[in-house]
Structure formats: C-alpha cells, structure tokens
C-alpha cells in the first residue's frame, strides 16, 4: 500500500459467496468492512458484530466508499444502479447482470459517475492462470493455436436464476479472452436441459478469437466429478492449468530427431520434457480484493472491468442463441 487511506466497505449478500467476501474484506489492509446487508438474513454468521441491514439504501446510508454485490444475478442491475447513483465504487460478482441490456445500463451508470466498477471473475486471479498469462505474454509458447477448457461438477443448489452458461461458462469465456489477449470473434454451441429446470445445465461450445485462436468449452452441472481445467496448445508445446489445485504444467514439444520422412517436418509429434512449475499460491479472492482496492485508490488497474464483464456476458448469451438457432454467431461487429 502506498496510501494511509482506509476505505469504508459495504457488502450486500451474505450467502455462500458473500460470507467469503466478508472474511477477506476483514483480512486485507486498507479496507474496513463497516456495513452488511441481506434481506434474507445471515445464514453463515458472516456479519459478526455488524447489524444485518435490509437493503442497499441502508448500506449506502452507512457512509461507504466501496461495495461488494454478492446477491443473485437477477438483482445485480437494481443494486448496482443504486450504488452508482450514490457514488460508491463497486465490485459485482459475476456475471455482471442477468442480461446484456442490463449490463449496458450498469456500464453506462458507472462511467457517467467516473466510478471504479469491477466484475468478480475470480479465475483471473488464480495464481496458475496468472503464471500462465505471464509466460504466454513473454512468448514462451510461441504462437498460440488452441485453448480448451473443461468446467464441470455437481449442481449447486444456490444457483436458481441463471443457467450454466452465465454462471459457469462465463469463467471460461473471460479467462480465455484474457490469457489470449483477444476478444471472441465467433461462437457456436449446443446446450441441454437434463435436470428439469428452465435454464440450461450443459453446454458444449466452440469458437474463434479475433486473433485466430480456436477455442472449445465443455461446461455442465451434472457431473459427479469436479473438473476445472484449461489447456493451451501452441507452437512450442502445451500448458495445462488445473485451477482447482492452482497447478501449471508444461508439456514441451520434443526435439528428438525422426527418420520417418513423412512426419519429420511436422512439429510437435514427439513427446518432450514435462515441467510442473512452482510459484506462490495466494488465495484468488484476496488477490481480487486487493486489485479492486488498489484500483479505487488509483494505484493500479488490473481488475476485470465492467466493459469486459459485459463482453463476457454477450458471448454467453450468444452461446444460447447459437444453440437455439443452430447458427454460428458472429461477435466481431
């Protein structure tokens, strides 16, 4: 920290994710959690000695500088707009909103007030993905060819207002565009409804980024096996990231000469060295909160911006549109 200023923080939403926000807000330097709100109460005892306020207006009245919104997605817009009007810098849990139109209104409101707004795409702050992005940016993989993600596991009962595309796939959309440093140009998808809910619970998507990298995402809520894997293949080999364990492994292209003429000129057919990297593994939520704090204080700006959160939501919506229409959705416009 390069300032002695302490930010007065508020938190709305004390559910499964909100309780972790409350813990981290109490742990990091330069932030004082002064108010919490949740009309449903405090099932996890996250409020501590603070009274549980009923709504966002009561939270604002507590005199806060920053706020974290950890309520169900359908309520994001109304709460975010109230915080913007009150001049409160805000971190909104992903996705930014339940629809792109709502997300556009949030972006406009914070821009009009000159406030810092961020979206809680926490995977960007996973130490293994941060290490991966650093190595990709340094050119260690050479040209990037393909990014594949797999994110699947049991259905979370706490999610009821959006499908697996907006809840889980948005993680992979954001991290893919971020590590490749390129937006999506096109997306095609298939979805399935297997759990009897109104929202999709399985997604298979394939697409292309503006820089030519091809991508594939497997996402579902119906697997007893929890998997959080990102695979990046390029000119010099393949990186494999397990974000559940924050492990990063590199599989190098082999350099063993071959006498088989038909494949001698084809790079990447031989198995090379395998390296599992060692690096510091800090809690992603803490790193995310530190980045938001520093953005509010003007120290650095590596949060997931509202504009980036909106673009991610648009890609997630395009997945569903593609499945509904059977068409490839052009996102390049």
Number of strands: 15
Tally of individual helices: 9
Give unreliable regions as ranges: none
Give the name of the CATH superfamily of the largest domain: Dihydrodipicolinate Reductase, domain 2
The ordered string of helix (H) and strand (E) elements is EHEEHEHEHEHEHEEEEEEHEHHE
Query: Please, how many domains?
Result: 2
Kindly estimate the percentage of residues that lie in beta strands according to DSSP: 25-35%
Average pLDDT value?
Answer: 93
The largest sheet is:
9 strands, mixed
Radius of gyration: 21 Å
Distance between the termini: 40 Å
Content-based structural category: alpha/beta
Shape: globular
Task: Indicate the topology.
Blueprint: E1 7-12, H1 18-27, E2 31-37, E3 52-53, H2 56-61, E4 66-69, H3 76-85, E5 89-93, H4 100-113, E6 117-120, H5 127-137, E7 144-152, H6 164-180, E8 184-192, E9 202-209, E10 214-220, E11 227-234, E12 237-242, E13 247-253, H7 261-264, E14 271-276, H8 284-296, H9 306-325, E15 329-330
Parallel strand pairs: 1-2, 1-4, 2-3, 4-5, 5-6, 7-10
Antiparallel strand pairs: 7-11, 8-9, 8-15, 9-10, 11-12, 12-13, 13-14
Would you give an account of this structure?
Helix content is 32%, strand content 27%. The protein is α/β, with parallel strands linked by helices. The chain folds into 2 domains: 7-121 and 285-303, NAD(P)-binding Rossmann-like Domain (Rossmann fold, 3-Layer(aba) Sandwich); 124-282 and 314-330, 2-Layer Sandwich (Dihydrodipicolinate Reductase, domain 2). Keywords: NAD. It comes from Sanguibacter antarcticus. GO terms for molecular function: nucleotide binding. Residues 8-121 form the Gfo/Idh/MocA-like oxidoreductase N-terminal domain.
């Amino acid at each position: 920290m390069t300032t002695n200023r302490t930010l007065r923080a508020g938190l709305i939403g004390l559910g499964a994710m909100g309780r972790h926000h409350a813990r981290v807000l109490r742990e990091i330097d330069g932030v004082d959690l002064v108010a919490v709100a949740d009309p449903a109460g405090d099932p996890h005892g996250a409020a501590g000695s603070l009274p549980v306020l009923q709504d966002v207006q009561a939270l604002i009245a507590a005199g806060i500088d920053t706020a974290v919104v950890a309520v169900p997605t359908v309520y994001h817009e109304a709460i975010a707009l109230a915080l913007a009007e009150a001049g409160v810098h805000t971190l909104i849990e992903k996705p930014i909103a339940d629809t792109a139109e709502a997300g556009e209104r949030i972006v406009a409101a914070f821009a009009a007030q000159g406030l810092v707004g961020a979206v809680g795409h926490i995977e960007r702050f996973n130490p293994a993905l941060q290490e991966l992005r650093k190595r990709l940016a340094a050119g260690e993989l050479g040209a990037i060819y393909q990014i594949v993600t797999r994110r699947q596991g049991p259905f979370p009962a706490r999610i009821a207002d959006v499908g697996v595309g907006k809840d889980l796939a948005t993680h992979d959309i954001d991290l893919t565009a971020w590590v490749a440093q390129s937006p999506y140009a096109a997306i095609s998808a298939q979805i399935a409804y297997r759990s009897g809910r109104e929202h999709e619970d399985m997604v298979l998507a394939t697409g292309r980024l503006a820089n030519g990298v091809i991508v594939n995402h497997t996402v579902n809520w119906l697997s007893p096996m929890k998997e959080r894997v990102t695979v990046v293949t390029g000119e010099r080999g393949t990186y494999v990231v397990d974000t559940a364990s924050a492990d990063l492994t590199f599989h190098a292209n082999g350099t063993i000469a071959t006498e088989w003429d038909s494949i001698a000129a084809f790079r990447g057919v031989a198995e090379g060295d395998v390296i599992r990297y060692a690096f510091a593994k800090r809690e992603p939520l803490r790193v995310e909160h530190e980045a938001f704090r520093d953005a509010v204080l003007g120290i650095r700006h590596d949060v997931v911006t509202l504009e980036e959160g909106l673009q991610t939501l648009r890609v997630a919506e395009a997945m569903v549109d593609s499945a509904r229409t059977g068409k490839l959705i052009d996102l390049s416009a």
